[in-house]
Amino acid sequence: GESVGLHLPTLSVQEGDNSIINCAYSNSASDYFIWYKQESGKGPQFIIDIRSNMDKRQGQRVTVLLNKTVKHLSLQIAATQPGDSAVYFCAENGSGTYKYIFGTGTRLKVLA
Amino acid sequence: EAGVAQSPRYKIIEKRQSVAFWCNPISGHATLYWYQQILGQGPKLLIQFQNNGVVDDSQLPKDRFSAERLKGVDSTLKIQPAKLEDSAVYLCASSLDQGRGYTFGSGTRLTVV
User: Which residues of B touch A41 (CB under 8 A)?
Assistant: First the structure.
């Protein structure tokens, strides 16, 4: 079946360092991917998206990389700040549908 | 713009009782979703509306869950009767149209005891 998973459940990084959060997806037909950030007690917040015709997309301090060959997605956060502490989810649109399938999530802890 | 509004924020009920959640999407957003997020997991889609019609309810446990969006704006999600495993955060999200990124509400945290 379709699934999205993450390699690391918790990631601890020093403030100011770069963070890399990884995600594996299983449906090769997925053509749209999103990274969400979820802070405690809040709903997921859109960070950045990427379509399957791209392999890299940059935002403000964030970069998403897509490797379709190995069905891998990553989120890079530059100069990680305390406010980046949250759970990060990747989501795929599974077989080109409009419903998004979320992974389990990675908790990012920023150490002062 | 105002975000997606949900109420209540928290709800505690006993098993076999019923409960309802309310969602007011962003003005003008035609597509509305209800997700269930069990602690430690990613959100799972329950139902998707396009205006007041159901697009996808394949993962909605229809023996106990129901949802409606009568006028194509607000939506309610109901559970009757509730089970212990229904304890979760129920998230509502909306988007201008299918295929666009969602905006999520803060969710309703349901505890079934």
Answer: 106
List of residues 6+ apart from A69 with CB closer than 8 A: none
- pLDDT digits 0-9 by tens, A43-59: 999 999 999 999 999 99
Q: Determine the residue among A50, A52, A64, A99 to mutate to test chain B binding: the one whose Cβ has the most chain B Cβ atoms within 10 Å.
A: A99
Query: For A46-112, what is the HEC assignment?
Result: EEEEEECCCCEEECCCEEEEEECCCCEEEEEECCCCHHHCEEEEEEECCCCCCCCEECCCEEEEEEC
Q: d(Cα B74, Cα B78) in Å, to the nearest integer?
A: 13
Of B92, B68, B77, B73, the residue nearest B19 (C-alpha): B77
> Token pair of A110, please?
């920023």
Identify which of A27, A96, A37 has the alpha carbon closest to the alpha carbon of residue B99. Answer: A96
What is the mean pLDDT of the segment spanning B80-98?
A: 93
Sign of the Cα torsion B10, B25, B34, B51 reads: positive
Rg (Cα) of chain A, in Å, rounded?
13
- Cα A90 from Cα A3, distance rounded (Å): 11
